Model the fold of this input.
Amino acid sequence: MEQLEKMADFFSQRADMYDSHMLNEVEGCKEGYELIPQLLPQAANSLLDLGCGTGLELDGIFARFPDISVTGIDLCEAMLIKLKEKYSSKDIRLICGDYFTLNAEEELYDSAVSFQTMHHFEKQAKLSLYKKIYSAIKKGGVYIEGDYMVLTDEEEEHWFSESRRIRKALGILDGEFYHYDTPCSVKNQLELLEKAGFKNVRQVFRMENTTVIVGEKQ
Done:
């Protein structure tokens, strides 16, 4: 029978090789990381980073915004330790936990980002999260998502159906975090952000399956 690893365990076991893998083996990630800082508002002083991992997206962000205050959330403590070691001199608050339980004050952050993390979850769960993100960022801010996305509804349905089949066979309960890729189509991903309240939602980059989308809070 197919086996799935718990999400935190999957990434903990790969923490030492994660940066090299993402930068050198996942097409489009290096370019996506470099693009993100250019998409943030010029006056960005605070940032929410969901699924921050080892903080690869922060390299360019700190280069452009050296004094930005970052709140990073991730399930994997081993990756957060690496992030803290890399940016020990920066203004960073790290939370080891589940970003679906985000309970931020309204308009607390100038913007929010996520990179290669949202493709593990059901669409309805993501929609609820996007509504929280929308509430948490200030007017004039943006939410930037770089992720693994597919082009057709048929591809999307294949991966979600497989995930449900495997989870049922293994007796995995809803809400338990196990590693399995369930990419949305670009079209459906854009629609989720629109339903959450974001405006001018658009794709700004795609290389292979790595796609960057942006939504504004106006």
Notes: The helical segments are 7-12, 18-24, 29-39, 58-64, 77-86, 123-136, 153-170, 186-195. The chain has one domain: 12-156+180-216.
